[in-house]
Each structure stands twice: as structure tokens, then as C-alpha cells.
Amino acid sequence: MTEHTHAGRLIVLSGPTAVGKGTVEAKLRADHPEVWVSVSATTRAARPGEVNGVNYWFLSEEEFLRKEAAGEFLETAVVHGMAHYGTPLKPVEEHLAAGIPTILEIDLQGARRVRQRASELDLEVVYVFIAPPSFEELKRRLTGRGTETPEQQARRLETAKVELAAESEFDVTIVNDTVERAADELWSVIAEEYGLQS
């Protein structure tokens, strides 16, 4: 195994569906552009407006499976039984080695897969759980988006209950009551890890 020297630990950001992980991360990046967020690879087709290397790395299934077999991903998943998704390992290691604050925003299953793989790779990770102020508020946010049918909403709420129960698996919990406060709290965690000014 190669020796890895990391100036800071990888920040893994997770939490239940509709909690606002992406919104908190976007606010953090707007305030602190020095933070690097990992770009996932996928075998699904690019949607209109999506840019290769910005939104995702778009790969053929053959290419993805070859990279997966070669151990080039930190974690992988098959979503909805169709598309493959994965976190390319090399950019994560390169940014960590350079002392650049590095974030991976991922679902609960992905966070668990990172935990399994991190020990093999001698990768130090801080697991951050973004929580809603309450389950009722999470329900309100999910139904307020208006992007899913009532059946889909019910399924996602059941998933969210399971995801909320996993909070104890994480090192830090940040309650997303306001995006600004949650992003500031996330920055405090990163600043402490990387020895930066909070």
C-alpha cells in the first residue's frame, strides 16, 4: 500500500433526503471558494446544461466498470437499478495532499461505503450529518418542492426516517435551520480540521 500524507481529513457530508445538503454546500462554496467539492462520475446521460467535469464526469458503462475494477473509485453505487455512480479517488487524494479543504456530498449508503473503504486506504475522514430542525420541517420541505408525486413523497419520507436514525454514525451533526448558519457551522468544522481562520 502506498503511503498517503494528508494535510487534512476528508469531509463527508450526508443526511436525509430533502434536508438541503446541496444548498448548504452551495452557500459554503459561495462564501469559501477555496473549498473543493468532489465531482462524481456517472454512466447516465448528461442532462441539458450539464457540463462534463463540472456537474459529473460522464463515462460509458464499459469505462466506468474498468475504472471500478482497477480500484479508481473511493465508492460506487448503482442508482435505481440503472446508472452507475462513483467518487473518483485520485482527485480526492490529490486535493487532500495539497492541503485543500475537500468535501464529498453523498447519501447515507455512500457515506457507509466510504467508511468501509477509508480504512483500506488509510484515509482520515470526518463524517458530518446535516439534520432538519424536526421531522415535520423535513416533511414540509419535501412536499413544498412540488417535484414528486404523493406516492414518491411518501417513499422518500420513509427513507428519511431510516436515514435520520443513522445520525449516531456521524462525528458531527449540523442542524439546517437556516442555510447561512448551517454553512457557517460547516465552515467552522473545516477550519478546525485544516487549521484555517474560522
UniProtKB/TrEMBL annotation:
Keywords recorded for this protein, A-Z: ATP-binding, Cytoplasm, Kinase, Nucleotide-binding, Transferase
Localisation: Cytoplasm
EC number(s) given by UniProt: 2.7.4.8
Superkingdom of the organism of origin: Bacteria
InterPro entries documented for this protein: GK/Ca_channel_bsu, Guanylate_kin-like_dom, Guanylate_kinase, Guanylate_kinase_CS, P-loop_NTPase
EC top class named in words: transferase
A cellular-component GO term for this protein: cytosol
Catalytic activity: GMP + ATP = GDP + ADP
Residues annotated as domain Guanylate kinase-like: 8-191
GO MF annotations, alphabetized: ATP binding; GMP kinase activity
Binding residue positions for ATP: G15, P16, T17, A18, V19, G20, K21, G22
Function: Essential for recycling GMP and indirectly, cGMP.
Name of the protein this chain belongs to: Guanylate kinase
